[in-house]
Amino acid sequence: MLLFAQRNPRSCPVLGVLEAGQVESELLAGGDIRTDLPAYRLYREGQLVAEPQDVLEHWREDLVAFLIGCSFTFETPLLAAGVPMAHMDQGVNVPMYKTSIRCRPAGALSGPMVVSMRPLPADRIADAVRITSRYPGVHGAPVHIGSPEEIGIKDLSAPDFGDAVEIPEGWTPVFWACGVTPQAAVMESAPELAISHAPGHMLITDLPDAELQVP
């Protein structure tokens, strides 16, 4: 997984890696990786088998946890700049899609890039690119703008994860690499066991958003 993340930094920007069996981190300020996520997903042989509220009974001492940056982080500076977030206005989760863009494989782990989509007015796209490019630790700038079919997305109203978002007339879909990408790789590569966050239910850390901004 670490090699997969290193080879696919836009999708898997690593903020921290715990030791095998470790459940605490300085980013959690005394919290527990097994209980502190809003919702989890449990995969066995690539199949989703449960969505528990904690993973205490499934934890093993050989499991290694990876903390991956999330694009929700850069939504705060986008909003501060007056860039609208349609999914927030509509009260739904951000939509996420599997694409035809293939990640660079690592060992037995391979799969497609997953992207999150936020529709934007044409005159705010440049601002969104400029702002998010300063947050490479949480996916950075968009990987694609407009024309979803060019990256293998056939129907924006049917996301693979999250919720569909109504796109206002004249707005353009903008796509960012998404931290659900490892789950798509798990589903394709079918490891014995994998535990993840439920899409849209990420870990909240004590790391301030501003510390992830680069000049």
CA-CA gap between termini: 29 Å
* H and E string: HEEEEHHEEHEEHE
Task: Just give the CATH class.
Answer: Alpha Beta
Total strand segments: 9
CATH-defined architecture: 2-Layer Sandwich
**Radius of gyration over alpha carbons?**
17 Å
Q: Give, in spatial order, the strands making up the sheet with the most strands.
A: 5-6-8-7
Largest sheet: 4 strands, antiparallel
The overall number of domains is: 1
Form type? globular
Mean pLDDT: 96
Helix content range: 10-25%
- CATH names the topology as PSTPO5379-like fold
Broad structural category: alpha+beta
What percent of residues are in strands?
A: 15-25%
Please explain how this structure is put together.
With 215 residues, this protein is an alpha+beta fold. It has a single domain (2-207), classed as PSTPO5379-like fold (2-Layer Sandwich). The chain is 15% helix and 22% strand. Strands 5-6-8-7 form a 4-stranded antiparallel sheet, with helices on one face. It is globular, with a radius of gyration of 17 Å. The two termini are 29 Å apart.
